[in-house]
Structure of Amino acid ABC transporter permease:
Amino acid sequence: MWQSAFKILLSGNNITRILGGLETTIVISLTSIVLGTLIGIVLGALWTLSGKWVKLVFKIYLEIFRIIPTIPLLFLFYYILPRDLGVNLPAVQVSILVFALWFAAEFSDIIRGSIQSVPRQQRESAFALGLSTFQIFRYVLIPQGLLTAISPFINLSTRIIKTTSILLLISVTDVITVGQQIIEANSQNTVIPILIYGIIALLYWLVNAVLGYLTDYVKGKQINGR
């Protein structure tokens, strides 16, 4: 059985299809993380400055993406809103939109907490030196806040990457979808699901391990440069 399962894996373009699905997963994940990081930094900084009503809006936005599971959000943006608004987006774009908004909501709360953890004396010293509010955030608060936020950033990023496994529900041809297609095409072989999902699990581990290594490297460079 195992021998025939490996023959199936190596036959045709199955390996190429799996790697292509992995590429789709990586593109969606990294694009969502980059966009979510940029939006999250801006929202997190504004959250520490804004008045009561603006903070309430941020809080509602955060709670929507924190409480509602990702699957209903995907269905809402892919099936319901396009039908009601007459706007049709490709599944990959919808995936990036949902994951970026989710990442931004979670990361903005992390940034808010990180900025507020910077000692008050540093903000007061920056004001005394004549720096504007923008300059204080640009050169003092956000750099130190980002350093504090690196570990939560890794955890949130790995959550995004792992959660992309549900994208087969909206017909995104990611690595999970490709693996399922190969399994269904060879359903007579009872070992092929173990082999395919084992390879997919290894690929997810490799992607997350590389992300963790790169983030730790950047964190180390920042600490050594302080």
